[in-house]
Amino acid sequence: MSLAVNAMNGHNMAGHHDNRSIFGDKRCLVLEILYVLEGINGDLVDTRRKALESSDCLMNGSIGVPEINLINRLLVMANHYIGVNHFIQKYSSDSNPYNRRLAQSVDKLLIDYRNELIEVEIDIHRNPNYSVIKFNRFLKFGQTFDFLDQIVSQFNEKVDSFASTLDILNESSLSGFTQIEKCAKILYESSDSLYSDIWSWIMFGFLSNKSENHFFIRDDNQKTTLDMSRVPAFISPMDAIKVHQIGESVRLAQSRGLEFVFNDKENDLFERFNDMKNRVSSDKKSFSQFIESVRSIVSEQNWKYVVNEEGLKDRLQSLKMFYLMSNDGFWSSFVSITSELVLNGHNRFKKEDSNYSICLNYKIPDSLQDIISDDSINK
Protein backbone atom coordinates (compact mmCIF):
# COMPACT_ATOMS: atom_id res chain seq x y z
CA MET A 1 0.00 0.00 0.00
CA SER A 2 1.36 3.47 -0.90
CA LEU A 3 2.40 6.12 1.58
CA ALA A 4 -0.52 8.23 0.45
CA VAL A 5 -3.03 5.47 1.13
CA ASN A 6 -1.60 4.77 4.59
CA ALA A 7 -1.59 8.42 5.46
CA MET A 8 -5.12 9.01 4.26
CA ASN A 9 -6.39 5.97 6.13
CA GLY A 10 -4.98 7.47 9.29
CA HIS A 11 -6.59 10.78 8.44
CA ASN A 12 -10.00 9.17 7.89
CA MET A 13 -9.75 7.11 11.10
CA ALA A 14 -9.25 10.29 13.09
CA GLY A 15 -12.80 11.27 12.25
CA HIS A 16 -14.68 13.14 9.56
CA HIS A 17 -13.29 16.52 8.56
CA ASP A 18 -15.14 19.10 6.53
CA ASN A 19 -13.57 20.63 3.44
CA ARG A 20 -12.16 23.63 5.25
CA SER A 21 -10.33 21.51 7.84
CA ILE A 22 -8.78 19.45 5.05
CA PHE A 23 -7.61 22.58 3.26
CA GLY A 24 -6.40 23.93 6.56
CA ASP A 25 -4.13 20.89 6.84
CA LYS A 26 -2.02 21.29 3.71
CA ARG A 27 -0.35 17.96 4.19
CA CYS A 28 -3.71 16.17 4.09
CA LEU A 29 -4.52 18.05 0.90
CA VAL A 30 -1.20 17.04 -0.63
CA LEU A 31 -1.85 13.41 0.28
CA GLU A 32 -5.36 13.55 -1.18
CA ILE A 33 -3.97 14.84 -4.47
CA LEU A 34 -1.46 12.01 -4.58
CA TYR A 35 -4.19 9.66 -3.49
CA VAL A 36 -6.44 10.54 -6.43
CA LEU A 37 -3.54 10.42 -8.91
CA GLU A 38 -3.09 6.80 -7.86
CA GLY A 39 -6.71 6.12 -8.78
CA ILE A 40 -8.37 6.34 -5.37
CA ASN A 41 -10.78 9.18 -4.59
CA GLY A 42 -10.42 11.09 -1.33
CA ASP A 43 -12.75 13.15 0.84
CA LEU A 44 -12.34 16.36 -1.15
CA VAL A 45 -10.16 15.62 -4.16
CA ASP A 46 -12.55 13.30 -5.92
CA THR A 47 -12.78 12.61 -9.66
CA ARG A 48 -16.54 12.15 -9.33
CA ARG A 49 -16.86 15.83 -8.49
CA LYS A 50 -15.01 16.74 -11.70
CA ALA A 51 -13.80 20.07 -10.24
CA LEU A 52 -13.20 21.83 -6.97
CA GLU A 53 -15.39 24.77 -6.05
CA SER A 54 -13.22 27.86 -5.80
CA SER A 55 -15.49 29.48 -3.21
CA ASP A 56 -15.12 26.55 -0.80
CA CYS A 57 -11.38 26.29 -1.28
CA LEU A 58 -10.67 29.98 -0.84
CA MET A 59 -12.66 30.39 2.38
CA ASN A 60 -9.67 29.87 4.66
CA GLY A 61 -7.09 31.29 2.25
CA SER A 62 -4.85 28.23 2.52
CA ILE A 63 -4.50 27.82 -1.27
CA GLY A 64 -4.96 30.21 -4.14
CA VAL A 65 -6.51 30.16 -7.58
CA PRO A 66 -3.38 28.73 -9.32
CA GLU A 67 -3.43 25.71 -7.00
CA ILE A 68 -7.17 25.20 -7.55
CA ASN A 69 -6.74 25.33 -11.33
CA LEU A 70 -3.87 22.86 -11.11
CA ILE A 71 -5.88 20.43 -8.98
CA ASN A 72 -8.79 20.58 -11.40
CA ARG A 73 -6.51 19.76 -14.33
CA LEU A 74 -5.08 16.86 -12.35
CA LEU A 75 -8.61 15.64 -11.64
CA VAL A 76 -9.30 15.32 -15.38
CA MET A 77 -6.10 13.35 -15.84
CA ALA A 78 -6.83 11.17 -12.79
CA ASN A 79 -10.27 10.38 -14.18
CA HIS A 80 -8.64 9.19 -17.42
CA TYR A 81 -6.18 7.10 -15.41
CA ILE A 82 -9.00 5.32 -13.57
CA GLY A 83 -10.71 4.43 -16.87
CA VAL A 84 -7.48 3.30 -18.51
CA ASN A 85 -6.47 1.26 -15.47
CA HIS A 86 -9.87 -0.47 -15.49
CA PHE A 87 -9.32 -1.37 -19.15
CA ILE A 88 -5.91 -2.86 -18.33
CA GLN A 89 -7.25 -4.93 -15.44
CA LYS A 90 -10.14 -6.21 -17.58
CA TYR A 91 -8.19 -7.27 -20.66
CA SER A 92 -4.55 -7.90 -19.66
CA SER A 93 -5.36 -11.57 -18.96
CA ASP A 94 -8.09 -11.93 -21.59
CA SER A 95 -8.20 -15.16 -23.59
CA ASN A 96 -8.43 -13.13 -26.80
CA PRO A 97 -4.82 -12.38 -27.84
CA TYR A 98 -5.86 -9.15 -29.60
CA ASN A 99 -7.42 -7.66 -26.45
CA ARG A 100 -4.67 -8.98 -24.21
CA ARG A 101 -1.86 -7.54 -26.38
CA LEU A 102 -3.52 -4.13 -26.56
CA ALA A 103 -4.04 -3.99 -22.78
CA GLN A 104 -0.43 -4.97 -22.19
CA SER A 105 0.76 -2.24 -24.56
CA VAL A 106 -1.39 0.35 -22.77
CA ASP A 107 0.01 -0.81 -19.43
CA LYS A 108 3.53 -0.34 -20.79
CA LEU A 109 2.75 3.31 -21.50
CA LEU A 110 1.95 3.94 -17.83
CA ILE A 111 5.38 2.89 -16.52
CA ASP A 112 6.80 6.44 -16.49
CA TYR A 113 3.67 7.80 -14.82
CA ARG A 114 3.77 5.21 -12.06
CA ASN A 115 7.47 5.81 -11.48
CA GLU A 116 6.71 9.50 -11.12
CA LEU A 117 4.12 8.70 -8.46
CA ILE A 118 6.70 6.71 -6.48
CA GLU A 119 9.17 9.60 -6.61
CA VAL A 120 6.55 12.05 -5.40
CA GLU A 121 5.55 9.74 -2.53
CA ILE A 122 9.17 9.63 -1.41
CA ASP A 123 9.48 13.42 -1.65
CA ILE A 124 6.31 13.93 0.41
CA HIS A 125 7.55 11.52 3.03
CA ARG A 126 10.85 13.41 3.31
CA ASN A 127 9.35 16.90 3.11
CA PRO A 128 6.39 17.65 5.46
CA ASN A 129 5.88 21.01 3.71
CA TYR A 130 5.56 19.62 0.21
CA SER A 131 3.81 22.26 -1.91
CA VAL A 132 0.64 21.63 -3.92
CA ILE A 133 2.08 23.52 -6.87
CA LYS A 134 4.84 20.89 -7.23
CA PHE A 135 2.24 18.51 -8.63
CA ASN A 136 2.50 20.41 -11.92
CA ARG A 137 5.21 17.87 -12.79
CA PHE A 138 2.35 15.50 -13.72
CA LEU A 139 0.95 17.81 -16.39
CA LYS A 140 3.47 16.40 -18.87
CA PHE A 141 1.35 13.22 -18.90
CA GLY A 142 -1.84 15.07 -19.87
CA GLN A 143 -1.49 14.50 -23.62
CA THR A 144 -0.72 10.82 -23.07
CA PHE A 145 -3.85 10.30 -20.98
CA ASP A 146 -6.04 12.21 -23.42
CA PHE A 147 -4.83 9.88 -26.18
CA LEU A 148 -5.26 6.72 -24.08
CA ASP A 149 -8.74 7.80 -23.06
CA GLN A 150 -9.65 8.16 -26.74
CA ILE A 151 -8.33 4.67 -27.53
CA VAL A 152 -10.06 3.02 -24.57
CA SER A 153 -13.36 4.84 -25.12
CA GLN A 154 -13.42 3.91 -28.80
CA PHE A 155 -12.59 0.29 -27.98
CA ASN A 156 -15.35 0.05 -25.37
CA GLU A 157 -17.99 1.57 -27.65
CA LYS A 158 -17.64 -1.02 -30.44
CA VAL A 159 -17.94 -4.78 -30.28
CA ASP A 160 -15.55 -5.49 -33.15
CA SER A 161 -13.26 -2.53 -32.63
CA PHE A 162 -9.74 -3.88 -33.05
CA ALA A 163 -9.52 -2.85 -36.71
CA SER A 164 -10.78 0.65 -35.87
CA THR A 165 -8.28 0.90 -33.02
CA LEU A 166 -5.43 -0.01 -35.37
CA ASP A 167 -6.63 2.64 -37.83
CA ILE A 168 -6.49 5.30 -35.10
CA LEU A 169 -3.00 4.19 -34.06
CA ASN A 170 -1.86 4.17 -37.67
CA GLU A 171 -3.08 7.74 -38.20
CA SER A 172 -1.75 8.94 -34.83
CA SER A 173 1.73 7.64 -35.59
CA LEU A 174 1.87 10.29 -38.33
CA SER A 175 0.21 13.08 -36.31
CA GLY A 176 3.32 15.23 -35.93
CA PHE A 177 2.91 15.41 -32.13
CA THR A 178 5.97 13.77 -30.59
CA GLN A 179 4.22 12.41 -27.50
CA ILE A 180 1.26 11.06 -29.47
CA GLU A 181 3.55 9.42 -32.02
CA LYS A 182 5.52 7.82 -29.18
CA CYS A 183 2.31 6.44 -27.66
CA ALA A 184 1.06 5.16 -31.02
CA LYS A 185 4.34 3.36 -31.70
CA ILE A 186 4.14 1.49 -28.41
CA LEU A 187 0.45 0.65 -28.76
CA TYR A 188 0.94 -0.46 -32.35
CA GLU A 189 2.84 -3.44 -30.97
CA SER A 190 -0.60 -4.91 -30.35
CA SER A 191 -0.95 -5.38 -34.13
CA ASP A 192 1.39 -8.36 -33.79
CA SER A 193 -1.65 -10.51 -33.12
CA LEU A 194 -3.29 -9.57 -36.41
CA TYR A 195 -0.11 -10.06 -38.42
CA SER A 196 0.51 -13.42 -36.75
CA ASP A 197 -2.98 -14.59 -37.78
CA ILE A 198 -2.44 -13.40 -41.36
CA TRP A 199 0.92 -15.20 -41.55
CA SER A 200 -0.51 -18.44 -40.13
CA TRP A 201 -3.38 -18.29 -42.59
CA ILE A 202 -1.45 -17.59 -45.81
CA MET A 203 1.39 -19.99 -44.97
CA PHE A 204 -0.41 -22.88 -43.28
CA GLY A 205 -4.14 -22.28 -43.73
CA PHE A 206 -4.48 -22.11 -39.94
CA LEU A 207 -6.63 -19.80 -37.81
CA SER A 208 -6.49 -19.66 -34.03
CA ASN A 209 -9.86 -20.28 -32.39
CA LYS A 210 -8.91 -17.79 -29.66
CA SER A 211 -8.46 -14.91 -32.10
CA GLU A 212 -11.93 -13.45 -32.37
CA ASN A 213 -10.91 -10.11 -33.89
CA HIS A 214 -9.36 -11.20 -37.20
CA PHE A 215 -11.46 -10.59 -40.30
CA PHE A 216 -12.35 -14.22 -40.95
CA ILE A 217 -15.53 -15.95 -39.82
CA ARG A 218 -15.67 -19.73 -39.64
CA ASP A 219 -19.00 -21.52 -39.50
CA ASP A 220 -19.83 -24.92 -38.00
CA ASN A 221 -18.82 -26.63 -41.24
CA GLN A 222 -15.36 -25.01 -41.03
CA LYS A 223 -16.16 -22.85 -44.04
CA THR A 224 -14.34 -19.52 -43.85
CA THR A 225 -15.76 -16.22 -45.07
CA LEU A 226 -14.65 -12.59 -44.88
CA ASP A 227 -16.06 -9.91 -42.58
CA MET A 228 -15.10 -6.62 -44.24
CA SER A 229 -16.12 -4.62 -41.16
CA ARG A 230 -13.12 -6.09 -39.35
CA VAL A 231 -10.58 -5.28 -42.05
CA PRO A 232 -8.19 -2.42 -41.08
CA ALA A 233 -7.99 0.56 -43.43
CA PHE A 234 -4.43 -0.25 -44.55
CA ILE A 235 -5.71 -3.51 -46.09
CA SER A 236 -7.82 -2.90 -49.20
CA PRO A 237 -10.94 -5.03 -49.80
CA MET A 238 -9.23 -6.66 -52.80
CA ASP A 239 -6.16 -7.57 -50.76
CA ALA A 240 -8.38 -9.00 -48.01
CA ILE A 241 -10.01 -11.22 -50.64
CA LYS A 242 -6.58 -12.32 -51.86
CA VAL A 243 -5.53 -13.19 -48.31
CA HIS A 244 -8.67 -15.28 -47.96
CA GLN A 245 -8.11 -17.07 -51.28
CA ILE A 246 -4.46 -17.81 -50.51
CA GLY A 247 -5.34 -19.48 -47.22
CA GLU A 248 -8.12 -21.48 -48.84
CA SER A 249 -5.71 -22.72 -51.52
CA VAL A 250 -3.27 -23.84 -48.85
CA ARG A 251 -6.05 -25.63 -46.94
CA LEU A 252 -7.23 -27.32 -50.15
CA ALA A 253 -3.72 -28.60 -50.84
CA GLN A 254 -3.46 -29.94 -47.30
CA SER A 255 -6.82 -31.69 -47.57
CA ARG A 256 -5.39 -33.65 -50.52
CA GLY A 257 -2.46 -34.75 -48.43
CA LEU A 258 -0.03 -32.42 -50.14
CA GLU A 259 2.69 -30.53 -48.34
CA PHE A 260 2.13 -27.04 -49.59
CA VAL A 261 5.62 -25.57 -49.27
CA PHE A 262 6.97 -22.27 -50.56
CA ASN A 263 10.33 -23.99 -51.00
CA ASP A 264 13.34 -21.67 -50.91
CA LYS A 265 11.10 -18.57 -51.05
CA GLU A 266 9.68 -18.99 -47.54
CA ASN A 267 12.65 -17.35 -45.76
CA ASP A 268 12.58 -14.37 -48.08
CA LEU A 269 8.83 -13.97 -47.57
CA PHE A 270 9.26 -14.17 -43.80
CA GLU A 271 11.88 -11.41 -43.82
CA ARG A 272 9.69 -9.18 -45.97
CA PHE A 273 6.70 -9.87 -43.77
CA ASN A 274 8.60 -8.99 -40.58
CA ASP A 275 9.94 -5.81 -42.12
CA MET A 276 6.43 -4.73 -43.05
CA LYS A 277 5.04 -5.73 -39.63
CA ASN A 278 7.66 -3.71 -37.74
CA ARG A 279 6.77 -0.48 -39.50
CA VAL A 280 4.67 1.67 -37.21
CA SER A 281 2.72 3.18 -40.07
CA SER A 282 1.33 0.49 -42.35
CA ASP A 283 0.35 1.46 -45.88
CA LYS A 284 -1.77 -0.26 -48.47
CA LYS A 285 0.97 -0.30 -51.09
CA SER A 286 3.53 -2.31 -49.10
CA PHE A 287 0.92 -4.77 -47.86
CA SER A 288 -0.59 -5.13 -51.33
CA GLN A 289 2.80 -5.82 -52.92
CA PHE A 290 3.59 -8.50 -50.36
CA ILE A 291 0.23 -10.26 -50.71
CA GLU A 292 0.47 -10.17 -54.51
CA SER A 293 3.90 -11.83 -54.40
CA VAL A 294 2.49 -14.60 -52.17
CA ARG A 295 -0.54 -14.99 -54.41
CA SER A 296 1.71 -15.41 -57.46
CA ILE A 297 3.67 -18.18 -55.77
CA VAL A 298 0.50 -19.97 -54.68
CA SER A 299 -1.04 -19.66 -58.16
CA GLU A 300 2.09 -21.11 -59.74
CA GLN A 301 2.07 -24.02 -57.28
CA ASN A 302 -1.62 -24.68 -58.00
CA TRP A 303 -1.01 -24.64 -61.74
CA LYS A 304 1.88 -27.07 -61.46
CA TYR A 305 -0.27 -29.38 -59.38
CA VAL A 306 -3.16 -29.33 -61.84
CA VAL A 307 -0.92 -29.81 -64.88
CA ASN A 308 1.53 -32.35 -63.46
CA GLU A 309 -0.24 -34.19 -60.64
CA GLU A 310 -3.76 -34.20 -62.08
CA GLY A 311 -2.53 -34.64 -65.66
CA LEU A 312 -4.41 -31.69 -67.15
CA LYS A 313 -2.17 -31.63 -70.20
CA ASP A 314 -2.81 -35.29 -70.94
CA ARG A 315 -6.55 -34.84 -70.45
CA LEU A 316 -6.66 -31.92 -72.89
CA GLN A 317 -4.54 -33.85 -75.36
CA SER A 318 -6.94 -36.79 -75.13
CA LEU A 319 -9.91 -34.51 -75.72
CA LYS A 320 -8.22 -33.05 -78.77
CA MET A 321 -7.42 -36.49 -80.19
CA PHE A 322 -10.97 -37.66 -79.51
CA TYR A 323 -12.32 -35.13 -82.00
CA LEU A 324 -9.46 -35.43 -84.47
CA MET A 325 -9.80 -39.19 -84.68
CA SER A 326 -13.61 -39.24 -85.00
CA ASN A 327 -15.05 -40.41 -88.31
CA ASP A 328 -16.75 -38.06 -90.72
CA GLY A 329 -20.22 -39.07 -89.60
CA PHE A 330 -19.57 -38.17 -85.96
CA TRP A 331 -17.95 -34.87 -86.83
CA SER A 332 -20.75 -33.90 -89.23
CA SER A 333 -23.35 -34.65 -86.58
CA PHE A 334 -21.47 -32.56 -84.04
CA VAL A 335 -21.26 -29.63 -86.42
CA SER A 336 -24.94 -29.79 -87.40
CA ILE A 337 -26.02 -29.80 -83.76
CA THR A 338 -23.80 -26.95 -82.61
CA SER A 339 -23.69 -24.69 -85.65
CA GLU A 340 -27.33 -23.63 -85.38
CA LEU A 341 -26.83 -22.61 -81.75
CA VAL A 342 -23.60 -20.78 -82.46
CA LEU A 343 -24.62 -19.03 -85.67
CA ASN A 344 -28.37 -18.51 -85.24
CA GLY A 345 -29.12 -19.42 -81.66
CA HIS A 346 -29.94 -15.91 -80.42
CA ASN A 347 -32.57 -15.42 -83.10
CA ARG A 348 -34.53 -18.49 -82.03
CA PHE A 349 -35.47 -17.04 -78.68
CA LYS A 350 -37.49 -14.10 -77.62
CA LYS A 351 -36.15 -11.97 -74.79
CA GLU A 352 -39.10 -12.82 -72.62
CA ASP A 353 -38.22 -16.51 -72.91
CA SER A 354 -36.91 -17.78 -69.60
CA ASN A 355 -34.11 -19.61 -71.40
CA TYR A 356 -33.03 -16.61 -73.44
CA SER A 357 -30.55 -15.36 -70.89
CA ILE A 358 -29.02 -18.83 -70.61
CA CYS A 359 -28.48 -19.03 -74.36
CA LEU A 360 -27.15 -15.50 -74.44
CA ASN A 361 -24.51 -16.37 -71.87
CA TYR A 362 -23.58 -19.64 -73.52
CA LYS A 363 -20.29 -19.01 -75.28
CA ILE A 364 -18.50 -21.24 -77.81
CA PRO A 365 -14.75 -20.57 -78.27
CA ASP A 366 -13.95 -18.32 -81.21
CA SER A 367 -11.77 -20.99 -82.77
CA LEU A 368 -14.73 -23.40 -82.90
CA GLN A 369 -16.99 -20.74 -84.39
CA ASP A 370 -14.44 -20.16 -87.13
CA ILE A 371 -14.36 -23.88 -87.91
CA ILE A 372 -18.14 -24.13 -88.02
CA SER A 373 -18.43 -21.04 -90.20
CA ASP A 374 -15.93 -22.37 -92.70
CA ASP A 375 -17.63 -23.33 -95.98
CA SER A 376 -15.26 -26.24 -96.26
CA ILE A 377 -17.11 -27.96 -93.39
CA ASN A 378 -20.10 -28.64 -95.66
CA LYS A 379 -17.99 -30.09 -98.40
UniProtKB/TrEMBL annotation:
What is its subcellular localisation?
Cytoplasm, Cytoskeleton, Microtubule organizing center
Keywords of this protein's UniProt record, alphabetized?
Cytoplasm, Cytoskeleton, Microtubule
What stretch or stretches form a coiled coil here?
Answer: none
**Start and end residues of each Gamma tubulin complex component protein N-terminal domain:** 32-309
Taxonomically, the superkingdom here is Eukaryota
A GO term for molecular function? microtubule minus-end binding
Q: Name one GO biological process term.
A: mitotic cell cycle
Record's GO cellular component terms: gamma-tubulin complex; microtubule; spindle pole
Endoplasmic reticulum in keyword set: no
Q: Which family does it belong to?
A: Belongs to the TUBGCP family.
Name of the protein in question:
Gamma-tubulin complex component
Protein's organism: Oppiella nova
